[in-house]
Design brief:
Blueprint (H helix, E strand, L loop, with lengths): L1 H20 L8 E4 L4 E4 L4 H4 L5 E4 L2 H6 L3 E2 L6
Bound molecules: zinc ion.
Amino acid sequence: MKKIFAVIVAGLILTAATVIAAPPQFDTPYIGNSYRKTFHRRDCPSVPEMNYKNQVPFNTREEAFAAGYSPCGNCKP
Ligand SMILES: [Zn+2]
């Protein structure tokens, strides 16, 4: 019983940490910003600051260029 409680608490802490860190919602190597029409590497510092609803997944740079997105000047994808 105690073990189950510990698992639930650990799960809640993990969930809270995820919300704070706001990782990209996609697993793709590149994340586009539909508001700015720019795309980033997954690990760019701009990605966690991006609004979830503006995030667009891209598997390749070509895909992002084809969609009319420009590479970020910071992470240079
Ligand atoms: Zn970037």
